[in-house]
Amino acid sequence: MENTTATYPHGKNYYIFLVAYLVGLSAFGSFVNDMYLPTLPEMTRYFQCPVSVIQLGLTMGMLGLGIGQLILGPVSDKYGRKPVLMTTMTIFIIGAVVSIFSPDIHFFLGCRFVQGIGASCGYFQRSSAGKNNGTYRCHQRLCTCFRTGARRHSGGC
């Protein structure tokens, strides 16, 4: 019988869960964009506006991702990863649900910005957690595989 406490101080299942969890977190940013792209033609019909206005949804999502990382990184350092992560995941879910009921394109664009902010925490949280626990290399490989598969199945490139 091998001694796994030296290799895995928290247990092997903990590290398997941690890597899977971090891969899932890193996917939020990809889902903000990749799940949105195939719906562009239908959204132009639904909101009755030009494609260029609908494409602002991508811009707003990316803007939210960028601004969220700038703001939430220091907030996470001050208050800890877990409370910030739980809050931003809640923000992401609320933004996604509310965007379903958007009455017009301007409200929808605001929801996309909120979704981007909510998804941004997964970007920097997965990197810092993976590096601190020594699972970074395995995590990066799995993220690459997961993102590629998610893009293929969602219709993204």
Keyword list:
157 residues, mainly alpha
As residue ranges, the low-confidence spans are 153-157
- The secondary-structure class comes to mainly alpha
Largest sheet: none
Q: What fraction of residues sit in β-strands? A: under 5%
The proportion of residues forming helix, as a percent range, comes to over 70%
What's the tally of helices? Answer: 6
Distance between the termini: 46 Å
Shape category = elongated
Question: From N to C, what is the helix and strand string?
Answer: HHHHHH
Secondary structure: number of strands: 0
- The overall average pLDDT, rounded, is 77
Radius of gyration: 18 Å
Structure description:
This protein has 157 residues and is an all-alpha fold. Helix content is 82%, strand content 0%. It is built from 6 helices and no strands. The model is unreliable at 153-157 (pLDDT under 50).
Topology:
Elements: H1 12-34, H2 40-47, H3 51-79, H4 81-100, H5 105-133, H6 136-154
Helix pairs in contact: 1-5, 1-6, 2-3, 3-4, 3-5, 4-5
Give a nutshell description of this structure.
This protein is mainly alpha-helical and about 160 residues long. It has helices spanning about 10-35, 40-45, 50-80, 80-100, 105-135, 135-155.
